[in-house]
Amino acid sequence: MTARFVSRRTFLGTASALAVGATLPVPARAAPEADLWPRWEKHDPESTKTIDHGAWGDFLKKYVSRGPDGVNRVAYGAVDQADRTALKGYLDALTGTRISEYNRAEQFAYWANLYNALTVEVILRHWPVDTIRDIDISPGLFSDGPWGKKLVTVEGAELSLNDIEHRILRPIWQDPRVHYAVNCASIGCPNLRVEPFTGAKLDQQLNEAARTYVNHPRGATVRNGELVVSSIYEWFQEDFGGSDAGVIEHLRQYAEPALKDKLADFSSIGDDRYDWSINAPVSRG
Length: 285
Hints:
Elements: E1 5-7, H1 8-19, H2 54-63, E2 64-66, E3 72-74, H3 81-95, H4 104-126, E4 150-154, E5 157-160, H5 161-173, H6 178-181, H7 202-214, E6 220-223, E7 226-230, H8 232-235, H9 244-254, H10 257-263, E8 271-275
Parallel strand pairs: 7-8
Antiparallel strand pairs: 1-8, 2-3, 4-5, 6-7
Protein name: DUF547 domain-containing protein
Signal peptide: 1-30
Pfam family, one: DUF547
């Protein structure tokens, strides 16, 4: 599988080339801004109701595995019809839930699991693909990927993946760990966890996801004397302190000692990278 890398230098080179009239592919989708959809702020802080994510957990245990490179991969090509049907049943159960009646922790787990299960379902419907960005079902002449298409209806409102991430999760919770929870089916993305998010364990799970990504070379590494980070920290810098210094401080919060010591030597980011290759086993088994 050919890696589809995006980097800050690639982007700057593209911009320079375009300035002199060259035609080059756009290196990455533009990052949407957080744009609150107020209706989804409704919640019940006194609610003790929980949502059953067992079907999603069964799917994850069966088809997600950790590779030797530390990247969790999904065996999309091995998913049988029975499990496709079970996944659809899980999504139907979620979309039939009146999520506004739950507490905040249950809501976060709900939206994160819905986003991830929807993404897997979209990949399965279009399999095989080399990258999610080839699934150009979003509206618009220059659509890139599936993120803008309305995929489900919750409480009477049609929702896209972008709506879930950028109009619900990011603006309501204002927690940078959102970016470690949602998975866009790419090697460069934080891992799709092998267990669902749950309200009861949410904070622990988000911290684990953050530490796993930050301490993997996809998150942050020192290469040739400069700090290289995931492009997520560039695209969504506003969520990580709004500056290189803010990003570095965020990384230090979750870095293991060896990385934390290295980060002390940097006040700026040298480059950023992201691999859009599909997060499937190399054999696609």
